[in-house]
């Protein structure tokens, strides 16, 4: 994929900062919202709405990805996807991405251009462009991505608007990345569909604005796990949430993998992070947009986060540092 | 400065991700442009102009700062200042900052809140707020900052608009950070004014929009050194630039330090980076805004970057990886 980049077998130290920036940005196609792309002190992006949605996430090698498990292109896709999912979870349409990249000087330049290929591919899939960034030297590969988006005149859908009686629904895969992680930890590399879900998420970007349009009262992207992230909505909205396990559509693929590894696929679905599905609350009689499926209800304040009406004692979820 | 944060002597691992985010954001005052601050999937910032200026820079411990030379508060100021200077160099008014922070789990939480104090102080000095971010674990302290700004209806001032005959002018200090670095490398800690210039820049934020208002044809912030950065303007504008050394107002403080260390203060002024002064081209008869001083002229294409009419053979400047 990188044969068009003239970096040969050189390291980033040999190619130099400006050569690297050139290699990462040449032959790329910016969306029309990019009024001024990379190459100046700053980028300029259209915000027709008069507001801009902005989110930053940092991925660190060995913590958020492993280069013996993922290709640089997959890591690039993941770094951009996790950020664009945050933008979509506000109900916004992604417009652009800025990338801060730190890596050792002896990193092959081709690795960075492959990483950039993945970033550009994922940004393009959401209609966004890479508009700027910075590359610096560090002991460890680290990727910081800031994603921007436009609400197209709608109110942002925060975590705080869910009301008792609302429908709770999700769009996108749940538990796949966790299943993939379990597979990789056992030293396997298949089934590929499950393993790839761990390598890079495929967030349903368009489902965020569609949910906002349909009147979603609260929304979040499932990065820490369904229970943990619905817990964030419950806390911010000061309500309870009950998940119905019979409404969780567990893929036969996850059941197969669970059986093979002696693991419970329901646990992956309830607690597995990194799939970046969207979860939202909708008014009781809302018509759910395409791809959204009901999985529970918003309950009264004080009733907490329950599964089939009972507290779930194996919370899982992912918090850094702990 | 951090006595109001309830983190005691704990490490970031002990405080946890959510505790850290709380400590960093509590008791802070957002500007009116922050429509939705930290705590949700993304922030929402007003962009009354219908466009947003965006820039990202990454600072790495041991590469861009040293904690035996600078306090965490000074590092925080620097991380934000270098980004806000990029926004100002487009002629924009800074509105907000997003921060991606990576550090080892055994980092004292108080260090991170001090870092945040510095970030908040610098952002506030420019009228901006910290609107979001991410904290993750890594082997090395790394700070990635994205700064956003508003052009207030003006065209962006890029590097590409300088024309032969234009005035070349600067606003802000030149050579101070380089002098401070020379002092620190010799193991000294004074004069404090010079050493502090290395610890954190004080970019003249308001001078960027003022220059745009006065008709600046090209602008850049001096991060790599005056010759290197004016070279970027010359290249992007396809012109030459001549700097007149008799117009460079070399502070007696730099002359003193140069004498003490046996170094040439003119070289610091011409090649020293990290002061984040602003350099710009103005039309021949423009009235320079307050604080701007003429240091040279834009010359014909092909004449290159000259000092007193001669090529300068000791380019200096700072390029990563090389």
TrEMBL record, chains A, B:
It catalyses: thiamine phosphate + ATP = thiamine diphosphate + ADP. Residues 163-255 form the PurM-like C-terminal domain. Mg(2+) 4 binds at residues 41, 55, 86. Mg(2+) 2 binds at residues 57, 86. GO terms for biological process: thiamine biosynthetic process; thiamine diphosphate biosynthetic process. Its EC number is 2.7.4.16. Mg(2+) 5 binds at residue 224. Residues 39-149 form the PurM-like N-terminal domain. One of its GO terms (molecular function) is thiamine-phosphate kinase activity. Mg(2+) 1 binds at residues 56-57, 134. Residues 310-322 have a biased composition (Basic and acidic residues). Mg(2+) 3 binds at residues 41, 86, 221. Catalyzes the ATP-dependent phosphorylation of thiamine-monophosphate (TMP) to form thiamine-pyrophosphate (TPP), the active form of vitamin B1. This is Thiamine-monophosphate kinase. The gene is thiL.
């Amino acid at each position: 994929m990188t044969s068009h980049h003239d970096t040969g077998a050189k390291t980033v130290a040999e190619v130099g900062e400006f050569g690297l920036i050139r290699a990462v940005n040449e032959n790329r196609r910016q969306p029309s919202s990019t009024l001024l792309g990379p190459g100046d002190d700053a980028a300029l992006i259209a915000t027709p709405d008069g507001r801009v949605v902005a989110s930053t996430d940092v991925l660190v090698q060995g913590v958020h990805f492993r280069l013996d498990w993922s290709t640089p292109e997959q890591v690039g896709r993941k770094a951009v996807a996790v950020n664009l999912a945050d933008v979509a979870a506000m109900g916004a349409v992604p417009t652009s991405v800025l990338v801060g990249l730190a890596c050792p000087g002896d990193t092959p330049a081709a690795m960075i251009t492959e990483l950039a290929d993945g970033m550009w591919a994922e940004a393009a899939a959401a209609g966004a462009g890479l508009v700027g960034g910075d590359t610096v030297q560090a002991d460890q590969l680290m990727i910081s991505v800031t994603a921007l988006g436009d609400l197209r005149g709608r109110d942002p859908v925060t975590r705080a608007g869910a009301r008792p009686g609302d429908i709770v629904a999700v769009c996108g895969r749940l538990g796949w990345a966790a299943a993939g992680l379990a597979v990789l930890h056992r030293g396997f590399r298949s089934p590929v569909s499950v393993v790839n879900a761990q390598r890079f998420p495929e967030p349903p970007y368009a489902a965020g604005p569609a949910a906002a349009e349909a009147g979603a009262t609260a929304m979040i992207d499932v990065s820490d796990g369904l229970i943990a992230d619905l817990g964030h909505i419950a806390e911010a909205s000061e309500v309870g949430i009950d998940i119905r396990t019979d409404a969780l559509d567990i893929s036969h693929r996850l059941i197969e993998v669970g059986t093979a590894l002696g693991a419970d696929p329901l646990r992956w679905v309830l607690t597995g992070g990194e799939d970046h599905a969207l979860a939202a609350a909708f008014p009781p009689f809302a018509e759910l947009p395409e791809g959204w499926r009901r999985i529970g209800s918003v309950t009264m304040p004080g009733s907490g986060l329950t599964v089939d009406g009972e507290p779930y004692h194996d919370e899982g979820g992912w918090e850094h540092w702990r």
